């Protein structure tokens, strides 16, 4: 299944996951395909009454019920943030395609051309849906089309009708063209998703340092449920002496310093922490599971490691200080604006006290 759902080379993991998720479709789309195949199988079975066709009708019902059960179960698991039986659902989709091909081929061999026409038209209609709904996985599309229409090619020479030999040419060409269409649509979709991902990344990240910007910081905090905001610390950092570096060595050196400081900040983050640049030399960290007793130690570590000397190249070595203001949830608020305001006030106090200090906001 992993091979069948391969989206292409160098596809980012998050886009790959989105493509796999799209294969589940929606209940209305699913219901339309299942209802059609069960209806056709039922009409043909009632018309001819042959055991093989009755077996097809029963198989369509069983497969449809199983696919529906797995689909509903998957949606519920996904909503709860849990794993889904994607392999099982895709396997049942492949079995369903084989069932459609089986029914169409049995109808061709039956000699009843009304049943054969209805069944083959239904199979062809299903192929269109297979291609344009599952093009996130072109290999899966090719297999399902081959199973839906391929059996008609196999039985065409035994149908007793020379005109059916056209299927030996028509269906392979149809399979190739739809497969190529699926690959083309897949490429367009992946390209669009990558562009959207890059635009979203640029909208939420600082272009110079690669850290989050204010919008990214807001989104990161919004991702933390209000019930989980009882042990967050917002640390507001300002680089003491940065203006002097800019004035002495120029903006290029200042940019190098900001990039180097951002690298050090990233190295100090733990899982779940977020760092952002929200101004010229102003940075913010949102740290999880940090209380009033732990915040000063974290702040002092930031002052010590971010404030260590920097080698900016071309013989330039500079030393700056770092002042830190800290706001805590829920003592100083839970939303970003109020936390920033309280941390900024604490930062101001740190600078008044002599800079390169960490001050926690008053309640």
Features:
5-stranded mixed sheet, two-stranded antiparallel ribbon, transmembrane, 12 helices, 7 strands, 363 residues, Nucleotide_cyclase, Alpha-Beta Plaits, transmembrane helix, 2 domains, DGC-Regulatory_Protein, membrane, alpha+beta
Write up what this structure looks like.
- The chain has a five-stranded mixed sheet with strand order 2-3-1-6-7, sandwiched between helices. It has a two-stranded antiparallel ribbon with strand order 4-5.
- The mean pLDDT is 88.
- It is 63% helix and 10% strand.
- It has helices spanning 13-22, 27-48, 51-79, 86-110, 113-133, 138-155, 167-204, 214-222, 242-249, 251-268, 295-306, 336-352; strands spanning 232-240, 274-277, 282-288, 310-313, 316-318, 321-328, 358-360.
- It folds into two domains: 13-202; 214-360, Reverse transcriptase/Diguanylate cyclase domain (Alpha-Beta Plaits, 2-Layer Sandwich).
- The chain is α+β, with helices and mostly antiparallel strands.
- It has twelve helices and seven strands.
Strand-helix topology:
Elements: H1 13-22, H2 27-48, H3 51-79, H4 86-110, H5 113-133, H6 138-155, H7 167-204, H8 214-222, E1 232-240, H9 242-249, H10 251-268, E2 274-277, E3 282-288, H11 295-306, E4 310-313, E5 316-318, E6 321-328, H12 336-352, E7 358-360
Helix pairs in contact: 2-3, 2-5, 3-4, 4-5, 4-6, 5-6, 6-7, 9-10
Domain GGDEF: 230-363
Protein name: Diguanylate cyclase (GGDEF)-like protein
Organism: Methylopila capsulata
Q: What spatial form do the alpha-carbon principal axes imply?
A: elongated
Distance between the termini: 56 Å
Multimer state = single chain
Helix content: 55-70%
Give Rg in angstroms.
Answer: 31 Å
Order of helix and strand elements from N to C terminus: HHHHHHHHEHHEEHEEEHE
């Amino acid at each position: 299944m992993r091979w069948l759902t391969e989206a292409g080379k160098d596809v980012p993991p998050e886009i790959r996951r989105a493509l796999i998720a799209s294969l589940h479709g929606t209940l209305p789309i699913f219901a339309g395909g299942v209802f059609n195949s069960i209806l056709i199988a039922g009409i043909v079975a009632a018309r001819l009454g042959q055991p093989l066709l009755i077996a097809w009708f029963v198989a369509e019902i069983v497969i449809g019920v199983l696919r529906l059960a797995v689909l509903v179960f998957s949606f519920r698991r996904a909503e709860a943030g849990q794993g889904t039986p994607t392999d099982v659902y895709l396997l049942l989709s492949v079995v369903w395609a084989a069932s459609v091909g089986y029914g169409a081929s049995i109808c061709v061999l039956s000699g009843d051309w009304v049943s054969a026409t209805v069944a083959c038209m239904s199979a062809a209609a299903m192929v269109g849906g297979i291609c344009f709904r599952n093009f996130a996985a072109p290999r899966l599309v090719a297999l399902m089309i081959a199973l839906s229409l391929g059996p008609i090619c196999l039985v065409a020479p035994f149908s007793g009708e020379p005109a059916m030999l056209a299927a030996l040419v028509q269906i392979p060409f149809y399979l190739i063209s739809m497969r190529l269409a699926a690959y083309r649509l897949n490429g367009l979709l992946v390209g669009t998703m990558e562009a959207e991902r890059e635009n979203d990344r640029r909208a939420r990240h600082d272009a110079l340092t690669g850290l989050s910007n204010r919008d990214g910081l807001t989104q990161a905090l919004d991702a933390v449920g209000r019930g989980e905001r009882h042990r967050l610390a917002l640390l507001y950092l300002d680089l003491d002496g940065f203006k002097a570096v800019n004035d002495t060595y120029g903006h290029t050196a200042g940019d190098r310093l900001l990039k180097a400081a951002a690298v050090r900040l990233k190295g100090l983050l733990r899982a779940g922490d977020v760092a952002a640049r929200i101004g010229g030399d102003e940075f913010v960290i949102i740290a999880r599971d940090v209380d009033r007793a732990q915040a000063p130690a974290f702040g002092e570590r930031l002052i010590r490691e971010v404030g260590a000397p920097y080698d900016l190249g071309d013989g330039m070595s500079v030393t700056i200080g770092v002042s830190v203001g800290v706001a805590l949830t829920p003592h100083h608020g839970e939303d970003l604006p109020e936390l920033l305001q309280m941390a900024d006030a604490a930062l101001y106090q740190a600078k008044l006290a002599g800079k390169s200090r960490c001050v926690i906001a008053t309640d």
